[in-house]
């Protein structure tokens, strides 16, 4: 009868669906069964970032000549302290780290511009007229192999990164997402962040605006590597964390983890 035939076809379709891999190439058939994120009529930067602030962040990755790392740290700390405490410059150092595990002889800096793009523009214009800073850049260039940066916004559901006492180690987890998936990522992590805040390990969460696009950075703090392992394992004991991993992994193209040690001048210790 028609009813039996329909039941058979539906059962057959579901059986095929269950055998399909959980990845981005699910094809037209499986897409029929996947819950869609509602269409939005606004940029994801407006939907995911904090409306009550206009903070803009700049993350810098500097690859330093191995023999110059100590001199680089010393020179960078001197200039950072001056800029950080100079009220004429609308920028502040959030944190500076040497990579411990990950890309070696690499230094990571995170800057905050309170006031967004206008503050960034003002700061760059002033620095380009600062002879002392221009001399610093020439001296620093002699110590570098390469450098790159990204401009970031902070996710609305993450806490703002604030200075903290140490000693701590920091983990920067970087996710390169598939284009078009940032809203879905934010939807899942807005619920998931509660599973990772009990031990005060959550420092900040950001997504890129200029530079490599569809990039997410999560910054975590731990007492040591053992504490990191125990904290991450405890998340799996909380109901709902497994669902977050299940639904966000298919959104990722590549991911990277850096374990970092704060420099002596970093506000995040």
TrEMBL record:
Domain NIPSNAP: 170-267
GO BP of this protein: mitophagy
Primary role: Protein involved in mitophagy. Accumulates on the mitochondria surface in response to mitochondrial depolarization and acts as a 'eat me' signal by recruiting proteins involved in selective autophagy.
Location in the cell: Mitochondrion matrix
Keyword Cytoplasm: no
Name of the molecule in the record: Nipsnap homolog 1 (C. elegans)
Any one Gene Ontology cellular component term annotated for this protein: mitochondrial matrix
Signal sequence extent: 1-24
UniProt keyword annotations, A-Z: Autophagy, Mitochondrion, Signal, Transit peptide
Family, similarity comment: Belongs to the NipSnap family.
